[in-house]
Amino acid sequence: MSRDVLAPPLQKMSHGRNYRVNVVHDDFGGSKWNGLNKKSKTDVKGYQEPDLYGDDDDEEDPAANDIVETLNGGYELALPVPKSFYGGLIGMKGNTKRRIEEEAKCEIYVPRQNEKSNEVIIRAKERSQVCAAMRRIRHITASLRQKMKPTHFLAVALNSGEVKDNFIELKKKILEADLPGIDETLFISESSIHLTLGVYVLLDDAERKRALEELETCRSLLENLVTPFDLKMKGLEIMNDDPSATRVLYASVEAPELQKFSDQCLGHLQTTGLCATDNQTRDSVKLHMTVMNNRYRQEVKTCENSFDAREILKRFGDYDFGSAKCQALHLCVLKSRGEDGFYKITGSLEF
């Protein structure tokens, strides 16, 4: 029996892994199954990890158009990657970066944190190898993004007119009722009243610019809708099933045209890779206007994880906040404050 069968060659992989290279004996069609002939019998090809992301995806990624041929006949790509991903891309002791280089047969340069450049350089002999590395980097950064906290949200501002006035009146009535466990820190600021249409992870100027460009492409979705959108806010509801342990109390929103547009925008922005985890798993936007949120209170003092909203719902469950017109969507920075008390606005889609 051939020694190649009893003691087959081993192929060393990353992370200290070793794989046995199974060689089919010539008597059983070895030259056919291994792609070998007698002249190259010792030239055994080891295991190669398959590319799970398919060559067909290359041309769908705009970055593939930026691959250039170098003077030495190889290929190179300067791939913009936010610095927040560098740690995950390099991995513990460089293991992740090294694995990509071994599997895609390329060289990868990741800028140091103190460098101004945010472009990861990929170099390889073949264009397909550059694409393979690019796909792996895209996969890693997408996975890392889903673990990050949102940085921005898409909002409709409602901090003016009768909605604001009626909100202030309701807040006054609830506080005057002197209900157990209810205080002013639970309420959203009247300068920040809004609807949230989506949350995103935008890590640098390039991603914020791209998010605004993607938002602008949603303008075409307005063609068959009536704008400005009519909004009516009436009635109070909670996010959970137990009003005695409420975390978020909100006003119901009636806005059929805005609902259609929001759902279509959500579907488009989910394809950009910029959405936070919560947005990626949604089929539709839940239109609501937050009135009270236990998180606001937790930000200023130590307290319970919820509040009792039973008496609030009993007394004010049908409260009418009035109507409003929506003429713009704003991309806002989470947990920020602008000069007018509203959130800092990165950019807007006006209509």
Automatic annotation (TrEMBL):
GO cellular component terms attached to this protein's record: nucleus
K Homology domain ranges (all copies): 73-142
One family name in Pfam for this protein: KH_1
RNA-binding listed as a keyword: yes
Signal peptide: none
GO terms under biological process: DNA alkylation repair; regulation of DNA-templated transcription
Key words, A-Z: RNA-binding
Comp. bias regions, Acidic residues: 52-62
PROSITE patterns: KH_TYPE_1
One GO molecular-function entry: RNA binding
Stretches the record annotates as Disordered: 32-62
PANTHER family membership: ACTIVATING SIGNAL COINTEGRATOR 1 COMPLEX SUBUNIT 1
This protein's name: K Homology domain-containing protein
Organism: Drosophila ananassae
Gene designation: Dana\GF12010
